[in-house]
């Protein structure tokens, strides 16, 4: 994160475009911290999927938390499935063949 901030500051970047809100991190608290830190440092953050990402209205805050929660859930489920496959001695290639 420090390297990203240094790179952004070094060339005069003012806008950070992300695909969607869960791309910076898949943990709600980390997402909120990263987005808030970038916003506090004067960067405009634009998400291709969620308009008006940094608005402070209650509805937008709720949507950020919902999207972040879903991303965190998907990450946890993916890790749980991966651990189950390892326990069973399965890999993705054995499931697709």
Written description of the protein model:
With 97 residues, this protein is mainly alpha-helical. It has one domain (2-96). It is built from 4 helices and 2 strands. It has a two-stranded parallel sheet with strand order 1-2. Helix 2 links the parallel strand 1 (15-18) and strand 2. The longest helix has 31 residues, at 58-88. The radius of gyration is 17 Å and the shape is globular.
Approximate strand percentage: 5-15%
* Envelope shape: globular
Structural class: mainly alpha
Order of helices and strands: HEHEHH
* Overall mean confidence score, pLDDT: 76
Largest sheet: 2 strands, parallel
According to DSSP, the number of beta strands is 2
What is the first-to-last residue Cα distance?
40 Å
Properties at a glance:
2 strands; mainly alpha; two-stranded parallel sheet; 60% helix; 97 residues
Could you give a short description of this structure?
By secondary structure, the protein is mainly α.
Blueprint (SSEs and pairs):
Elements: H1 2-10, E1 15-18, H2 28-40, E2 44-47, H3 58-88, H4 92-96
Parallel strand pairs: 1-2
């Amino acid at each position: 994160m420090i390297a990203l901030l240094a790179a952004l500051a070094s060339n005069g970047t003012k806008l950070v475009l992300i695909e969607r809100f869960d791309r910076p991190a898949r943990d709600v608290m980390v997402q909120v911290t990263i987005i808030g830190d970038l916003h506090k440092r004067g960067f405009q953050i634009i998400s291709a999927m969620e308009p008006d990402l940094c608005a402070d209205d209650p509805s937008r805050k709720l949507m950020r938390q919902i999207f972040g929660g879903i991303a965190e859930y998907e990450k946890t489920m993916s890790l749980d499935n991966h651990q189950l496959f390892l326990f069973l001695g399965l890999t993705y290639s054995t499931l697709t063949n």
